[in-house]
Write a structure and sequence with these properties.
Blueprint (H helix, E strand, L loop, with lengths): L3 E5 L11 H11 L4 E5 H9 L2 H13 L6 H8 L1 H15 L6 H5 L17 H5 L4 H23 L4 E2 L2 E2 L11 H7 L5 H17 L3 E5 L3 H17 L4 E5 L1 H6 L14 E3 L4 H12 L13 E5 L2 E5 L34 H7 L4 E3 L2 E2 L14 H4 L2 E2 L2 H15 L3 E4 L6 H13 L5 E6 L7 H10 L1 E9 L3 H7 L5 H14 L2 E8 L6 H16 L5 E6 L7 H4 L6 E3 L13 E3 L9 H12 L25 H7 L11 E4 L5 E9 L2 E11 L4 E7 H13 L8 E2 H9 L5 H5 L2 H7 L3 E3 L1
Parallel strand pairs: 1-2, 1-5, 5-6, 6-7, 10-13, 13-14, 14-15, 15-16, 16-17
Antiparallel strand pairs: 3-4, 7-8, 8-9, 11-12, 18-19, 20-24, 20-25, 21-22, 22-23
């Protein structure tokens, strides 16, 4: 028995749990408040995609005479093949049946329907992909065929990472969702609620906390709450998470409280702690409980209770995320499309952590920077972060980390990397950044050495005018140089791309595509995704639309308020660019079609680009400043050298040199320097090792050198030191 049941409703990700409940459970542990968490989504998926579940689906489709199309007919006809293979395939995707890969990769093991039509391009898209990854992709297509069957014959709202998402998108009114909630349970609903009821009987909670991160979780969240109200009325229900934080801030519809007793906004730790206290130890003498950022129904109206004077917890106080209770060995790794960054989202299980709450930049005009989850910036100390990483490795057995920051701060990333290296941890991690100039070549090498494998960041519109309007704080040239630094260090780079930004012209869209083409052609980008600009109510554009020459089409708000329809004064139909932008990008990601005229991607006339064909190449060739900041940290990542004393003679003069030979994992380099300076260098390399308790700046190193020798700069820029700078001597 636990007082609190933390629930993520269907559906989010197949490969890893959404971290919200793990964050809250970790916090509750620090308060000795018992809780149980469950990802209802993965449990429902596993129930559906099983021999028993598929048998029920095929029988129901036949009973209801829903098998109409040729594709559905083919899947139904092959039902015995699906029933025979489904459990082994799911086990393989869970990482428990690796030897099955060789069978999956044969032509006649998996039944194949329409999703397999894309296999003609398999070799082109995946190249010499290993057997395991190829098998994962084939198994993913197999599951997607079954998903198509479910959508067509059982439930049109089904999706692997969302359910009834349409009902949660821009739902200014609660009417449509409320009407759907009155309907008979769907097949997916029945499975969902059966699993939930079993857990309710086991845990016997007093409070059910449902986290709703996305619109695709909303319907199921309400369905679960509805079930609890009908069958377990003594259990209180509350909703929190990304969806209410962004969408429900203007809530007025009292019907919502037929399902939920409370809806909390923003950081959930203190609001939930206060709710637990209120529910488990109510104080009848209080006319109004002291709650934090919590909607309740009071006197027949929606009331926002924010009466508690207590401040929110600092990030150092919220504890380490706790993934216990979750079925970590049951998640399913899939490879949906040939996009290297998207594969990180769907393949493998990642421990989720946050380097810093909020965004250190906090200026982008399309972003919800007025809301606390962006506005309140609070970094976590690197040592505490790595403590939490070690705790999670111990508790989950997983060494992969996804830092889910809005934009990870470069200085904290540097400190994190140094701490990982100092503790000699072997981890794999990735995160999201701004492509700012702080990401020098040396910082990128440090990040890679610590285990960073991938970075995503917003290039948005590759136009300096629009980047300035966005207040991104970067230029296209700067982005190209940073992506080059990341790529050359061995870190994969994914760019978020945008079209249809207010005031964007057709010419700027074409020019932005040309910039992107050049960056892929030169190999400084490996992955990307175009999305059309969406106006949100809480962004600077949404708050001041007239400054951006758009006219919002506001509707009366009683439920959700985030996405806002608008009229663009330019009159341009930006949607028409969608297909061509995405098709060209798909080809660029696979290293082809760079010589195609941009016109070939569109079935309507576009202007020629005004961007020089060597614009990005010129940007990458630009000389960087030949100076070092006095406070720059100097770090030596290389090995301890083998030392040999040599004697050189010339014109009757002889002197001693030190030959220092450095071995790394792939190569060997050697340098020779005067013996005295070589001995100083040996001592300095020891001092600037990441394992040393001290760190030295360029200024301190210079002072130390010039206590014995003259002209540190001459030594620093000498050929031997230049060699070391390419083999582990970093300036950060």
């Amino acid at each position: 028995m636990k007082d609190i049941l933390l629930l993520t409703p269907p559906f989010t990700q197949l490969n890893t749990p959404y971290p919200a409940t793990a964050y809250i459970k970790g916090f509750l542990n620090t308060k000795n408040i018992g809780s149980f968490q469950m990802d209802l989504g993965i449990e429902v998926i596993l129930a559906i995609f099983s021999k028993e579940g598929l048998g029920d689906i095929f029988a129901l489709a036949e009973k209801n005479q829903r098998i109409v199309t040729e594709n559905a007919g083919r899947i139904f006809a092959l039902q015995q093949d699906y029933l025979k293979t489904i459990d082994p395939v799911i086990s393989f995707l869970q990482g428990h049946n690796a030897t099955l890969a060789r069978q999956i990769c044969t032509d006649n093991f998996l039944p194949q329907a329409s999703r397999f039509h894309q296999l003609d391009d398999m070799e082109w898209a995946f190249g010499a992909m290993g057997t395991q990854d190829k098998a994962k992709h084939l198994a993913t297509l197999y599951l997607e065929d079954l998903s198509d069957f479910i959508v067509e014959c059982i439930d049109e709202n089904f999706g692997f990472s969302r359910y009834a998402e349409r009902l949660g998108r821009s739902a200014n009114s609660f009417d449509e969702l409320y009407q759907h909630l009155q309907k008979e349970h769907t097949y997916i609903d029945r499975i969902t609620l059966d699993i939930l009821e079993q857990r309710i009987k086991t845990v016997q909670p007093k409070l059910l906390c449902i986290s709703v991160p996305f619109p695709g979780n909303l319907y199921s969240a309400f369905k679960c709450a509805q079930f609890i109200k009908a069958h377990y009325p003594d259990i209180k229900t509350t909703m929190g998470g990304g969806f209410p934080n962004t969408e429900l801030r203007s809530l007025t519809d009292i019907r919502v409280f037929e399902f939920f007793d409370f809806i909390t906004l923003d950081d959930g730790e203190l609001p939930i702690e206060l709710l637990v206290a209120h529910i488990t130890n109510p104080e009848p003498t209080l006319a109004e409980p002291a709650l934090k950022r919590t909607f309740v129904l009071q006197n027949g109206a929606v009331y926002y209770n924010n009466s508690s004077p207590r401040p929110d917890y600092k990030q150092s106080q919220v504890g380490t995320p706790d993934y216990s209770d979750l079925l970590l060995d049951k998640y399913i790794s899939v490879i949906e499309i040939a996009n290297p960054m998207h594969s990180l989202w769907s393949d493998g299980r990642w421990n989720k952590l946050t380097m810093a709450h909020g965004c250190y930049w906090g200026k982008c005009t399309f972003c919800d920077i007025s809301l606390d989850y962006i506005k309140i910036y609070e970094p976590i100390a690197a040592k505490l972060l790595v403590d939490r990483m070690e705790e999670l490795i111990e508790s989950t057995g997983e060494r992969g980390f996804h830092f889910v920051d809005e934009a990870a701060p470069p200085a904290l990333m540097r400190a994190l990397a140094l701490e990982i290296i100092k503790r000699k941890l072997t981890v794999t991690w990735w995160t999201n950044i701004r492509f700012e100039k702080s990401f020098s070549r040396d910082l990128c090498v440090l990040l890679k050495t610590s285990g960073c494998i991938a970075i995503s960041g917003g290039l948005e519109v590759a136009s300096d005018r629009l980047l300035a309007l966005i207040k991104k704080g970067v230029t296209v040239t700067q982005v190209a140089q940073v992506t080059r630094n990341l790529t050359e260090s061995g870190i994969m780079v994914h760019a978020y791309l945008m079209y249809g930004y207010p005031t964007q012209t057709v010419q700027e869209t074409v020019d932005s595509l040309e910039m992107v083409r050049q960056m892929f052609d030169l190999g400084v980008l490996q992955s990307g995704f175009w999305h059309q600009f969406a106006l949100t109510a809480h962004s600077p554009i949404g708050l001041n639309p007239s400054e951006y020459n758009i006219v919002p089409q506001y509707e009366e708000i009683s439920f959700a308020n985030n996405d806002v329809q608008f009229i663009d004064d330019t009159g341009i139909d930006h949607e028409q660019f969608s297909y061509g932008l995405k098709k060209s990008l798909f080809n660029f990601m696979h290293g082809i079609c760079f010589d195609y005229p941009l016109q070939d991607w569109f079935d309507f006339k576009i202007p020629k680009t005004t961007i020089a064909p060597n614009f990005i190449e010129t940007a990458l060739e630009a000389e960087t400043a030949f100076t070092n900041k006095p406070n720059a940290k100097i770090i030596w990542l290389g090995s301890t050298p083998l030392v040999q004393t040599l004697t050189k003679s010339k014109k009757g003069q002889s002197w001693e040199l030190l030959k220092l030979t450095f071995h790394d994992k792939t190569k060997t380099v050697a340098i020779s320097v005067d013996k005295e300076k070589g001995e100083w260098l040996l001592g300095a390399l020891d001092k600037i090792s990441p394992y040393s308790d001290q760190t030295l700046t360029f200024s301190q190193l210079k002072t130390d050198f010039e206590a014995t020798f003259d002209d540190f700069e001459l030594f620093w820029y000498s050929k031997p030191l230049s060699i070391l700078k390419n083999h582990g001597l970093l300036v950060l």
